[in-house]
Structure formats: structure tokens, C-alpha cells
Design goal:
The protein is α/β, with parallel strands linked by helices. The protein contains 14 helices and 15 strands. The chain folds into two domains: 140 residues, Aspartate Aminotransferase, domain 1 (Alpha-Beta Complex), CATH 3.90.1150; 247 residues, Aspartate Aminotransferase, domain 2. Helices cover 36% and strands 17% of the residues. The chain is globular and about 60 Å long. 48% of the residues are buried. It binds pyridoxal-5'-phosphate (PLP). Pyridoxal-5'-phosphate (PLP) binds next to helix 5.
Length: 408
């Protein structure tokens, strides 16, 4: 048995079967490259679902991690620590909000935003207790808690996990008329991804976010943007909402906020909204811990100092242009923004999975999302020559080379 097979067997024996990973065992990473236990090298084009925008082990982020780990790692919020203020100030300045509430994972930050908007609805909008409604979109992905999967439209995410939290309403993504119609006097917020990532890299029609913002403002509803995957440079702007000049009332960030090192998430809003929280209303043992704050601050600094959003815009536009030139009987469409790219495989060619397996054998790690879509989202520190190299194997695989097509 190879080392890879041995390690996979070990993991599969001891772990719950809630994932179906590609059969590669990674032991080291640097920048946009990773190495497996057999010494093979791969270009990481998933970036841990955009949690690695700054690349693997960015030296400045690792230095901040070491320095902080040698001083203080956790206090809980029962006491102050000397790192949280500076981190949240930097985050607020970067995003243009007055307040931030730190959590750990993305799903926790989404839950926090839901609690925030509900409380705001009761305390500030005067909605009758227990009646607040939040509108979300079909095909959404906001995390895996029971409340969040309760308003998912992906049957597998819900199957076997009910009963679910009430108070959510679903509308089609990209449809402003549907938003206008769905709002009632009890609507507190509209939760939306600027681009649906897990849903298959779905870019909404031009003007969608702008019109949603206008409708929300006019109807007294808070616009809640889940920028966990689209934010922090991925789409070619620091936040994807900037593409339409939209400033949401509530912004949710995570993933790359932890610089690919530890889970760090946050909810951003102005005082008039955030001040509904009082001591004891909400919390997290690890939220705002000094290690996370030191890492988060370094992660933000790297995004700014290395101009990563601009790199994503430039390289992403070029990369998509090159992908569109590929001659492939299997490729239906290339879509995306910045370095957030989806290549859609025709249903007649089967699913995207065997294409991802073929890419893996050629040294490129990418993962299918929503059966038909290969997502290409490399670390934003990637260089043009590295992307250029990737186009070789990608062209061959999209042409069918090495792809084990399952019988349809
Ligand atoms: C990944 C993701 C989440 C959930 O984040 P976790 O850290 O996995 O809990 C929520 N929303 C979006 C848009 C995401 O991409």
C-alpha cells in the first residue's frame, strides 16, 4: 500500500464520512503550491474555498502568528486583550463601518448577523415580537448550522436535519422584482451573496445588487451581504459589493480574514445597528482571541500592501479570456469575476468530478461545485507565469485527456 493509501485509510477509519475529498494527501504548502506525501507538487486552485487568498504560509502572517503565540493566545472576552482593538479598527477602516463583532467561523458570523438583524427589527423597527422575517435566495450557501441549512434549497444539506428555525423566506437569486414582492411589514433583512460561490459561481445580472440596495433602503429592510467567500479581494475588489458601488447595512466576512491560518470571522455594521447588542446578548469563547486578532490584522495588511484585489482583477480577466479560447467539447461556459472562476461542464459529458480528478493527476487541485462546475480560485498571490502554466493541463483535461468519463 502506498503512503497515500495508508493515510487515506487511516483518516477514513477514524473520521465521520461527511466529506468526499480527492485522493491526495497534502503535507506541505507554500504560496500557491502544495506537496503531497509522495513528494508530488500541485498548484492549489481551490485555496480552501478562498480562505487562502494570501497563499499558504504567507511569511508576514506566519511571523505574526509566531510572535503572538509566544506572548498570549486566549483570554476569553471576560477580559480585554491588547490585540482585538487594533484588529477591529483596521477591519472597520478597510470596510468602512463603525463597528465589528468578531467570531470564528463563517457560519457563526452568519448566525451573528441573523441575531443582530432580528434584534434590530424588534428594538428599532418595532416589529412585533417573534414576527421578524429574513429573506434569502434560492441556491444560497451561508454555512451548515441547523438554522442556516433550514433555509438552504439544497436537499442534501437539509435531509435528516429538521425541524428548522422559522422566519426565513426564499426568492430566486438575481430577481429584483421577487425581492420587491417578498417584502412585508415584518421583513427585517435581505441576506445575499454578491456572487453565489458554492451555488456554482453564479454572477447575478448587472445592477442586481444596486437595485436590491435601493429596494431595501426604500422599504426599511437591512441589506446583509455575505462576503465570506467573495470578500477580501477574491473578485478583484476588496469587497464584491464595490463592483456596484453598494454599501450594505451589514457585511459578513470570514475565510481569508484568518489568512489561511486560523478561523477568524466578523460582522460589520454601523453603531445604529450594532448598538442593539448589550453585554450578555451574544458571545463566543474564542471570538476576538488575541492570536486570531494578530493573524487577522496581518492578513488584512497583506491584502492591502500586496494589492491583492487589483491582482485578482487583472489576472482573473486574463485567465478567463484564455479559458474561453480553449477548444473543448465538454465545456459549456466560463463565468466569474476576478480570480473567482467557474467552468461549467456540459451535462452530456457527465459531472465535473472526473475532470477534477484528471486535473489532480496533472498537478492541479480544483474541486467541483454543484456537480457541473469546476471552480478555479487560486491564491491571489499567484503569478501570471504560474497561471499560464496551469492553462496547459487545464486545456488538455477540458479537451478530455485523462478524463475517466463515467457512463451516463
Ligand atoms: C464558506 C462560506 C460560509 C461558511 O463558512 P464556514 O467557515 O465554513 O462556517 C458562509 N457563507 C459563504 C458565502 C461561504 O462561502
Amino acid at each position: 500500500m502506498s503512503r497515500t493509501e495508508e493515510l487515506i485509510r487511516e483518516a477514513e477509519t477514524a473520521s465521520a464520512r461527511n466529506y468526499g475529498p480527492l485522493p491526495v494527501v497534502i503535507e506541505r504548502g507554500e504560496g500557491c503550491w502544495v506537496w503531497d506525501v509522495e513528494g508530488r507538487k500541485y498548484l492549489d486552485m481551490l485555496s480552501a474555498y478562498s480562505a487562502l487568498n494570501q497563499g499558504h504560509r504567507h511569511p508576514k502572517i506566519i511571523a505574526a502568528l509566531h510572535e503572538q503565540a509566544d506572548r498570549l493566545t486566549l483570554t476569553s472576552r471576560a477580559f480585554h486583550n491588547d490585540q482585538m482593538g487594533g484588529f477591529l479598527r483596521d477591519l472597520c477602516r478597510l470596510a468602512g463601518y463603525e463597528k465589528a463583532l468578531p467570531m470564528n467561523t463563517g457560519a457563526e458570523a452568519v448566525e451573528t448577523a441573523i441575531k443582530l438583524v432580528r434584534k434590530w427589527a424588534y428594538k428599532k423597527r418595532g416589529i412585533a415580537d417573534g414576527k421578524a422575517e429574513i429573506i434569502a435566495c434560492e441556491n444560497n450557501f451561508h454555512g451548515r448550522t441547523t438554522t442556516i441549512v433550514g433555509f438552504s434549497t439544497e436537499p442534501q444539506y437539509r435531509d435528516g436535519f429538521g425541524p428548522f428555525t422559522p422566519g426565513f423566506k426564499l426568492i430566486p437569486y438575481g430577481d429584483v422584482q421577487a425581492l420587491e414582492k417578498a417584502i412585508t411589514l415584518n421583513t427585517a433583512g435581505f441576506l445575499v451573496e454578491p456572487i453565489q460561490g458554492e451555488g456554482g459561481v453564479i454572477v447575478p445580472p448587472d445592477g442586481y445588487l444596486r437595485e436590491c440596495a435601493e429596494i431595501s433602503r426604500r422599504r426599511g429592510v437591512l441589506l446583509m451581504a455575505d462576503e465570506i467567500q467573495t470578500g477580501l479581494g477574491r473578485t478583484g475588489k476588496m469587497f464584491a459589493c464595490e463592483w456596484e458601488g453598494v454599501r450594505p447595512d451589514v457585511v459578513i466576512v470570514g475565510k481569508a480574514l484568518g489568512g489561511g491560518v486560523i478561523p477568524v470571522s466578523a460582522v460589520l455594521a454601523d453603531d445604529a445597528i450594532m448598538d442593539v447588542f448589550n453585554p450578555g446578548d451574544h458571545g463566543s469563547t474564542f471570538g476576538g482571541n488575541p492570536l486570531a486578532c494578530a493573524v487577522g490584522r496581518a492578513a488584512l495588511r497583506v491584502l492591502v500592501e500586496e494589492n491583492l484585489p487589483a491582482r485578482a482583477a487583472e489576472l482573473g480577466a486574463w485567465f478567463m479570456e484564455q479559458l474561453r479560447k480553449i477548444q473543448s467539447p465538454h465545456m459549456r461556459e466560463v463565468r466569474g469575476r476576478g480570480l473567482f472562476v467557474g467552468v461549467v461542464i456540459r451535462e452530456s459529458s457527465g459531472t465535473a468530478r472526473p475532470f477534477c480528478e484528471a486535473l489532480m493527476r496533472q498537478g492541479i487541485l480544483a474541486k467541483e461545485t454543484h456537480k457541473q462546475v469546476i471552480r478555479f480560485a487560486p491564491p491571489l498571490v499567484i503569478r501570471k507565469d504560474e497561471l499560464k502554466w496551469a492553462l496547459g493541463p487545464i486545456s488538455e483535461v477540458l479537451a478530455g485527456k485523462g478524463v475517466e468519463l463515467a457512463a451516463a
